[in-house]
Design a protein that fits this description.
With 116 residues, the protein is of the alpha+beta class. It folds into 2 domains: 1-46, no CATH class; 56-116, no CATH class. Helix content is 38%, strand content 14%. Strands 1-2 form a two-stranded antiparallel sheet. Strands 3-4 form a two-stranded parallel sheet.
């Protein structure tokens, strides 16, 4: 009920058949217990930023390639065409934080801005 109220009831259907291509097993079960509908407005509402994307910090796009999740292909294509981004591929599915947490953490740490 709260999801429908928050989104006006308009959501992207859950990929319950494929579960982002997670193989059957504990990881897939863990995600299935936590997955929630994604508001359609995240793709349709225009946002207005007071500063450029990244706010002057390096911008990195991490693309999961094992397999590529079709819903994010337009975002990747836009970022690639825009330029100014570091594009990094990770050879795992959309839920890299579940299927390849160490590899994802390594990428994030490598590209994180250094402070101090």
């Amino acid at each position: 009920m709260r999801t429908a109220q928050a989104t006006g009831g308009l959501t992207i259907p859950l990929p319950t058949e494929t579960m982002f291509d997670l193989p059957p097993g504990p990881d897939r079960d863990w995600v299935a217990r936590r997955i929630t509908p994604h508001p359609l407005a995240a793709y349709t509402d225009q946002i207005h930023l007071d500063h450029p994307v990244g706010n002057g910090l390096p911008r990195v796009y991490i693309r999961a390639t094992g397999p590529v999740y079709p819903a994010v292909v337009p975002s990747y294509d836009r970022i690639k065409a825009e330029g100014g981004w570091t594009l990094v591929d990770i050879a795992t599915g959309h839920d890299a934080m579940v299927t390849a947490p160490e590899a994802l953490a390594e990428i994030l740490l490598k590209h994180a801005p250094r402070r101090g």
